[in-house]
Amino acid sequence: MSDAVTNPRSPHAEPLPRSRRRPRWLWLALIAGFMVVLGAAGWARPDYYTIEIGPLSLPANSGHGHVEQPHPIAMELPIDGWIRGLRYELVDERGIVLPNGMLHHLNLIVPTHRELFSQIMLRIGAAGPETSPYTLPSFLGYRVRPGDSLLVTAMLHNPTPTGYRGVQLRVHLAMSPATSWLRPLSIKPLYLDVMPPAGGHSFDLPPGRSSKTWEGRPAVAARLLAVGGHLHEYGTSLRLEDISSGEVIWSARPKLDDRGKVVGMPRRYFLPFGVRLYPDHVYRLTAEYDNPTGKPLAHGGMGALGGIVLPASGSVWPDVARNDSVYQHDVRVTTGPKSHSHSAPHPTH
Ligand SMILES: [Cu+2]
Question: Residues in the chain with pLDDT < 70?
């Protein structure tokens, strides 16, 4: 991990006039400092907008292939403001909170916008059983307006010996209202995967050490403000590199429990300035594994990065290309009948 990549005055600075560049970042740094003080004082706590999925039946000891999965929900958001975070809970018919381990994964997708690095639909939130609730600092948010489309997909299973009925998955979006006197910076979430953007994101894991990579370019210049990741069991590292400049932007090892099981990935903020992403640079995401079982593991591997970016000022985020084959393939696998298989898009957490 190099400090140089977080330096806003890297040799790759865009040829913007100083008068345009400086005040924006000076302003951001000032706001950041100001908001830390306000945040510490308990100001700007988010409201929550809740989406309920269910009721669902979760028989005891049932894998995701043996549970009737919720259909993808396409909705129009009635809210005007900024989404700043995500948490969820599962409750049974009596309202008793159930173990998070029954969520296999949850994805929030905006079908009318695309990702920075590919033509697939924009992923704005994801969670799995290990995901702890998160809320962005109050000066960052994803802007939503009434009528915006949102697609919610989820998969559940029940590894416990107790069956449950009438289960509701409650997804709480942390929000700042549009009326807030201080406008958050309008960020875009980022999703990268070591598998091709559209289609199944798990891959077969060979025995021993192996790695999987994907490379791509961002559609517009942006600053990467935060990253997190997702690896499966036997994952040893996840790394994002700018291979045009040779810099490692982020490299992380999974958090392990006492028995060496992957229980999560560290998150990192690059505040206040972020790491510059250039449309003419190529970026590579690498997931490394060390499978000690001596056997190939079908669908055993995954490597995904979730983050947030601040698009460069004046940049125009490209529209979705509904005729693009990658976009269409993404829509098919995300919302079609096969969206309930494990090869469906899967969370970053
Ligand atoms: Cu996974």
Answer: 1-44, 337-349
Q: What was the pLDDT predicted at 6?
A: 34
Separation of CA 278 and ligand 1 centre (Å): 28
Which candidate, 182, 210, 211, places its Cα nearest to that of 285?
211
Residue 13 is predicted with a pLDDT of 37
Q: To the nearest 10°, report the CA torsion of 312, 230, 63, 205.
A: 120
Q: For the whole model, what pTM was predicted?
A: 0.82
- How far does residue 129's CA lie from ligand 1's centre (Å)? 10
* Burial label, 100 (beta-carbon count in 10 A; 0-12, 13-18, 19+): middle
Per-residue confidence (pLDDT) for residue 52, from 0 to 100 = 94
Report CA(46)–ligand 1 centroid distance (Å). 29
Region of residue 22 (phi > 0: left; psi between -120 and 50: alpha; otherwise: beta):
alpha
Task: State residue 101 phi and psi, 5-degree precision.
Answer: -60, -10
**Residue 339 pLDDT:** 57
Residue 2: per-residue pLDDT: 36
> How far is ligand 1, taken at its centre, from the CA of residue 228, in Å?
13
Query: In angstroms, rounded to a whole number, what is the distance separating the alpha carbons of residues 276 and 192?
Result: 16
| Correct CATH for 18-340 of 2.60.120.230, 2.60.40.2470, 2.40.10.350, 3.40.630.30 | 2.60.120.230
d(C-alpha 173, C-alpha 333), whole Å: 25
Please report the pLDDT score of residue 29 as a whole number.
Answer: 63
